[in-house]
Amino acid sequence: MFADGTIVRARTAVIATGVRDELPPINGLAARWGKSAFNCPFCDGWEHRDLPVVVIAAGPGAEHLATMLRSWTPDVTLVDASDIAELKGPGNTLETIELCDGTSILATAAFVRAPMSPRSDIARQLGCVVDDGGYIVADQDCVTSQAGVWAAGDVRRPPPAPHQVVLAAADGSTAAISIHKALIERDQREI
User: What is the pTM of this model?
Assistant: First the structure.
């Protein structure tokens, strides 16, 4: 049922709600998210090769993220999120990271290692098994524990699994094929 009370009935459902990055409360970070502040070195590191970048440590794995980025630029500074006052630059661009002690660091991009969590609780509401972090447990065909429900993308990939659009799209294709096969089998049984 939707918020407005509308009820939709379907033979199957795919949960593909993704994850939410739990960004630290740093002034200027949310406005730059996806523009000059990122979480994936493989998605956005190349564009900042040989430029100064900062890794903001807001969760486990920040040192590893910094190591990954050093394959594109030697100018990587690792800073704890609690030491940062603000990200500054015109519009959505980044020029400096202002620290709480009044100093600043030049940076064209910030990469944030922060906790993530599944974006929706719908899996639990539908009765699907989820792990301790709320990620949906699904098999290689994206089938969940609940009949007629599949899960695709980041919502079924707990860390340290990579969260990337290409992997989510592959899951979507896998789920679609699996659903098609399941519907054919169900229809054949009903004949």
Answer: 0.79
